[in-house]
Each structure stands twice: as C-alpha cells, then as structure tokens.
Specification:
This protein folds into three domains: about 50-75 and about 110-240 and about 430-485, 2-Layer Sandwich (BirA Bifunctional Protein, domain 2), CATH 3.30.930; about 255-410, YbaK protein (Alpha-Beta Complex); about 500-600, Anticodon-binding domain (Rossmann fold), CATH 3.40.50. About 25% of the residues lie in helices and about 30% in strands. The chain contains 14 helices and 31 strands. Helix 2 (about 45-65) packs across helix 6 (about 170-190).
C-alpha cells in the first residue's frame, strides 16, 4: 500500500481524553478514531491488526476442533427471559442495550451469546451421539459499560471471540476446557504477548472453575497474585492465602474496658495494647436483592484483614433464595448516610460486637429484619480476642467464641494480599502484578441448559441437561493490550505476527529518482514475495516520515538513502533499534529470514 493514497493522519498531540500510552498511541498513529464515548472507528491500519489477531484466533480455535459460526446480534427478549437474565441485564446491571421493534417486541443487542447458543442447542441437539460440540464466533459485542474508558480496553462496542461447548458430562467439559487453556496460551504466545493464566472468580454459580488470561501491564485494571515457583496465580478477587499468624497479646480474662476515641483498629490496638491480629472487627454491609429487599450483613473478620467484596457477594448470592430472591443486585459497606435508611437507633460505630442486636434494624417493609451474620475463617481460632461491646467507647478483651459470643456462620471472605504465605507452600509468598484481562474460560455446567430446557438423551435413554462451557477472548482489547505492553517514547512496537504491515519503505526524498527507483523496485519485489509492505511515498520531509514510521510501529523499515549509490539500503528493526546495511538484491531474503525467525519465537 502506498501511504500517499491512504487515509492516514498522524497527530503530534495526545488526545485529551486518553490516559494510557496505548490509547494515546493508537489515536495519534492513525489506528482508531473516537466516534462517541466507548465507540471507536477502526481505521484501515487497525482493521488489519484486528484481522491478523482474528486469523490467529481462528487458526488455533479450528485446530482445537471448534467450529466457526455467526450468531445474531439482535436477540429477542424472550430468550433472556427464559434464562432469567433479561431484568438483570437491562435494569439491574443495565449492561445490555435494548430496544423495541415496530411491533413493540423487545430486543437486546448481544453483550454475550449464552442464550442464543443454548436455544440453538435445545433445538438441534437430541442425542449424546452429537456430543461434544464446540461453536465459536468472532463478532462485535455491545455493552453499556458504566465506565467505558481506556480506548479499546473498555469499549461499549468491541470485538470478541466467544465460544460455547456442549457435553454429556463434566469430564468431557473438563477436556475441552483444558484444550481451550492450551489454545488460548498458543494464541497469546503467537501474538507475542507476555501473559499469565490465573484462577478467576466464577461468581456464585461456582462450577469447577474458570481462568482468566492476563496480559501483564502496569495499567491493567486487574490485580493478580502469584508465587515465584509458578504453581499459583489468581485474580485477587479469587485468591486464597494463609494470613499471618495471630500474635498472642490479649489479656486472657474477659472484661469490658473503657476506651474512648478508639473506633479504628489502630487506635484500638494501641490503646488496649492488643495486636490487630487479636481483634475481631465487625463490618456492616448492605445488599440489594432482586426482589427489592435490602439485606444487612454483619461481617466479623480479623482486625488486620480486609473483606474481599467479590467473595462476600458470592456468599450473599448463594443465600438469596433464602430471602425469596434469585440474585444479588448491589453490595456496599453500610456507613453513615446509608445506615440512616434502615437503623432504628444509631449504631455503636467502631464499637460493634459480633452479637449486635437485630433490634437496630428498623421496621421497614423493604428491609429484612435480621442481620445475615458471617465470620471470616481468620477469626475462628482466635482465643481471648478483643472486640466491640455494642456500647460506644467500650471494647471487650479476653473474649472467646461460644463463651462470650456465638460464632457466626464461617466462610472465606478475606482479601488475600501480596506478602501473604501461599496455601500450597507456606514458604512461598504471594507477589502482586497488574494485568489486562483478555480472555476468560469458564466451566458453566448446566446453569443455562437447565434454565432453558436444553436437554439430550444419554446412552440409557434418559433426558438430561447439556453440560456447557464458554470461552471469551477480547480481540479488540487484546490489540490495544499488545500496544500497552510493547511501546516506547517514540511509538508502537508491533510484534510481526500482528503488525498491520511487516515492512515500511521510507523514502527520504521522493524527488531523488535513484531513491524512488530502488524503493519502487523493492516495493514490487516484497509484494511478490508475499511480504506485507507500506511505501511511504508522501511528499514530506525525511524527519517527519521517520517520526511517523516509529509512531506507527511497523517492525522493519527500509531506507533507500545515500547508500543506494553503493547498491545498499538500510534496514532498521523497530524492536531492537538496530540498523543493518543490506545489498538491494539481498533485501527480500534478509526480511524473509527475519520475519520467519520472529514468527517462530
Ligand atoms: P471485565 O471484567 O473486564 O468487564 P468481563 O468479565 O465482563 O470483563 P467477559 O464477559 O468474560 O468479560 O468477556 C470476555 C472477554 O471480552 C474479556 O476477557 C475481555 O477481553 C473482553 N471484554 C469484555 N468487556 C469488554 C469491553 N467493554 N471492551 C473490550 N473488551 C471487553
Ligand atoms: Mg465486564
């Protein structure tokens, strides 16, 4: 492609709305243009990158036995009502764009395709003989994200590869799941990315597992905890670890102590001379359930620890049916203002004990009149601990479960942290890193098939629900994550496998007929050799062209400059910054070699 004929505009200034280098660079280098919040046009260079990535994805998915298809983006509300997700997706989470047609029937724009694919499976899969089966598509998804940001990393319209597999049993699902793990690893490796697969939160449905593929980058929205030995890596939302051992420091005799102005763990610990690991603190959460009820949760956790709100949300969701609800809509710490909505009288803030009375909850129809009381595992084995007394300015010390307070239901709702000891090997400690989630593989089980009645007949002639897996990979997010991971102050540094073009010929002076002749000759020869080449034949100063070439990040740059007089050109490698002088006749072979080696690595 000749740059003089392309719609290509580079910017010297960073776009005002961009925070991340990758976002700034993609806009400045002419890859994307913002059309509205979270909505971008993929310009020709970007589209080539996206197609390169899609093709790698396609090759690896096909290799693993999945079959490509294309599902509708317009999805009837009935399908989502059947799975029970219409209200959550359109109202509660509000992530789905939806609309009405001329006959007033409601439709949603696909944020994901479990419903559509399950409807097809219900219709078409009859027998175990048709299984296992794995279908995937590469397509634009729509999500009305609360905070679209970071360019393509969190868009409202973005490209995803989503695949769905169907099985007769869990063992078959696990096989495909493992194959997808390998498949995603191959894809990311081929794209030249530094990544880590981590254990991920699967929500309340649990299932036997889900993993996320993280591109390691400082700008990542996700935190990952891993061990040096490579045996453990998890999203912090899911991570487990051993907390530090408690430091015995509390008086052994139970008594109430006057302790004014010690409503925080630090002040309380200092005043009582008790280590934070010997304190049981109470945190009040409030949850909104999908039946409109508010549930108050009294969490007891060790003083030095933090509540993991994802784990807590899962515990609450599991218990939703107990309160006549299907699911949880929102969860937050209930402090100050929030408490006023439900308390009968002011709570002893900072002095709450595990047995805080339900009497504090006012008589309102929308509020469940009892606390859900949960204790994190960290408090179970504490002896002679300090905690609140339910009376302002008084704490208790020397307390024991069963003796002074009933032990609430015990769950794991603690946030693992960098520095904690690993469960599999306490001599290893957890290390933190940041990542951009580009893929998520998930063992769904029978959640959708059961809800939507998608069954098959097994060998014994029994009709049972299909066992399902689903596998997402963000194609457009991956493209930008690659830039986030590989750039310098001058611009993007694409890996050859996903670069829009492999080579750019930058002619320093297009009025120099000798330079132009060599450039044209190489341009033709490279194309004939199947190498993807851009010819910068624009009537611009050499300095501008070099800057643009760095910015756009093409892996190899050929410069037919002064050395053409000696029958040579310079070839600059963007990744290494090295320049080689290569005989004009040898350029094609030199590049073929370099590209082959880069793609093999
Ligand atoms: P996130 O937690 O980042 O919102 P998610 O858990 O909602 O992601 P999935 O529903 O698992 O994501 O979607 C599969 C993949 O699609 C993700 O791993 C990610 O790569 C991509 N993806 C999800 N949401 C977006 C978005 N708003 N913009 C771009 N890519 C996205
Ligand atoms: Mg999301």
């Amino acid at each position: 492609m000749r740059l003089s004929q392309m719609l290509w505009v580079t910017l010297r200034e960073d776009p005002a709305d961009a925070e991340l280098p990758s976002h700034k660079l993609l806009v400045r280098a002419g890859y994307i243009r913002r059309i509205a919040n979270g909505i971008y046009a993929y310009l020709p260079l970007m589209w080539r990158v996206l197609q390169k990535i899609s093709n790698i994805v396609r090759e690896e998915m096909n290799r693993s036995g999945a079959m490509e298809c294309l599902l509708p983006q317009l999805q009837p509300a009935e399908l989502w009502q059947a799975s029970g997700r219409w209200d959550t997706y359109t109202k509660a989470e509000g992530i789905m764009f939806y609309l009405s047609d001329r006959a007033d029937r409601q439709l949603g724009l696909g944020p994901t395709h479990e419903e559509v694919i399950t409807a097809i499976a219900k219709d078409m899969i009859r027998s175990y003989r048709q299984l296992p089966l794995h279908l995937y598509q590469i397509q634009t998804k729509f999500r009305d994200e609360i905070r679209p940001r970071f360019g393509l990393l969190r868009g409202r319209e973005f490209i995803m590869k989503d695949g769905y597999s169907f099985h007769t049993n869990e063992a078959s699902l696990r096989e495909t799941y493992q194959e997808m793990y390998n498949c995603y690893s191959r894809i990311l490796k081929r794209c030249g990315l530094d990544f880590r697969a981590v254990e991920a939160d699967s929500g309340a449905i649990g299932g036997s597992g889900s993993q996320e593929f993280m591109i390691l980058a400082e700008a990542g929205e996700d935190q990952v905890l891993y061990t040096e030995d490579g045996l453990y890596a998890a999203n912090v939302e899911k991570a487990v670890s051993l907390p530090p051992e408690p430091v015995a420091s509390s008086p052994t005799e139970f008594r109430k102590v006057s302790a004014p102005n010690t409503a925080t763990i630090e002040t309380m610990a200092a005043f009582l001379q008790v280590h934070p690991t010997q304190i049981v603190k109470q945190v009040v959460y409030q949850a909104v359930l999908d039946n409109g009820k508010t549930l108050l949760i009294l969490v007891s956790i060790r003083g030095d620890q933090t509540v993991n709100e994802v784990k807590l949300a899962n515990e609450v969701t599991k218990r939703a049916p107990h309160y006549g609800a299907k699911t949880l809509l929102a969860l937050k710490v209930s402090d100050g203002e929030a408490q006023k909505q439900w308390q009968r009288r002011p709570l002893p803030a900072g002095y709450i004990a595990p047995d805080l009375s339900d009497d504090y909850i006012d008589n309102c129809p929308d509020v469940i009149p009892q606390f859900l009381r949960l204790a994190d595992r960290t408090v179970v084995d504490l002896k002679h601990f300090a905690t609140g007394s339910n009376e302002m300015d008084f704490h208790v010390v020397g307390a024991n479960w069963g003796e002074h307070f009933p032990l609430p239901e015990v769950v794991d709702i603690r946030l693992a942290q960098a520095g904690d000891r690993a469960v599999h090997d306490p001599s290893q400690s957890l290390i933190a890193a940041r990542g951009i989630e580009v893929g998520h593989i998930f063992q769904l089980g029978t959640k959708y098939s059961q809800a939507m009645g998608a069954t098959f007949t097994d060998e014994k002639g029994e009709e049972i629900p299909l066992v399902m897996g689903c596998y997402g990979l963000g194609v457009s997010r991956l493209a930008q994550a690659a830039v986030e991971q590989s750039h310098d102050q001058n611009g993007i540094i694409w890996h050859v496998a996903i670069a829009p073009y492999q080579v750019i010929i930058t002619v320093p002076n297009i009025t120099n007929t000798e330079q132009m002749a060599v450039a044209e000759k190489l341009y033709q020869a490279l194309q004939q050799a199947g190498i993807e080449v851009l010819l910068d034949d624009r009537d611009e100063r050499a300095g501008v062209k070099f800057k643009d070439a760095d910015l756009v990040g093409i892996p190899y740059r050929i410069v037919p400059g002064k050395s053409v007089a000696q029958g040579e050109v310079e070839i600059f490698t963007r990744q290494t910054g090295k320049t080689a002088n290569v005989a004009i006749e040898g350029v094609v072979a030199w590049l073929q070699d370099a590209i082959r080696i880069a793609l093999a690595n």
